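User: quick one, fold this
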Amino acid sequence: MRPIIIGIGGAYSSVGKTTIASILLNHLKGWGAIKYTPSDLYCSILDDREILRQEGKDTAILLSSGAEEVLWVQSPPLELKEIISMAIDRLSHLRGIIVEGNSAIEFLKPDIVIFISGRDIETLKESAINILNMADIILFQHEPSIKLPERAKKFKVAYLSISELDECINYIYELLNERQGSRRG
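Assistant:
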């Protein structure tokens, strides 16, 4: 059976996806993470800890935050379906997986989707709009000027402030219990 998957997407690069993933991984023991990066030429699934732990890499942050295992998936968009499925299979023994990257989320349809808004949300690319519409949770620092989906729970947070994320983390636990229960029942 596929493990529970939390997808973290965002309005654009450097909006805080890895920061939120690392905070969650500190709370979710026995979980892994997949970082997806689009590539024009090749497909790869990297699991070499020496590469993943290189300073400044998002994968190093995910590992240092308590991820049991981390995979770095790179592929052209047309090859994503096959390679992301292989990566999920490789981590299927874990309690759950956090997947970072809009394109991967679109394909996987995670159990829980978190969208991180930024300051300039008026000019969202199509993949970001798709993730926003899938979102169970929307995190933002400044109230977005566009209409947000009604179904998503919204949290105004100052990034890097764990105390302000407590309510959000508690809600994620509620969703995890609900989604795990619906899988069993």
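User: anything notable?
Assistant: The helical segments are 17-27, 49-52, 58-64, 80-90, 102-108, 126-134, 162-184.
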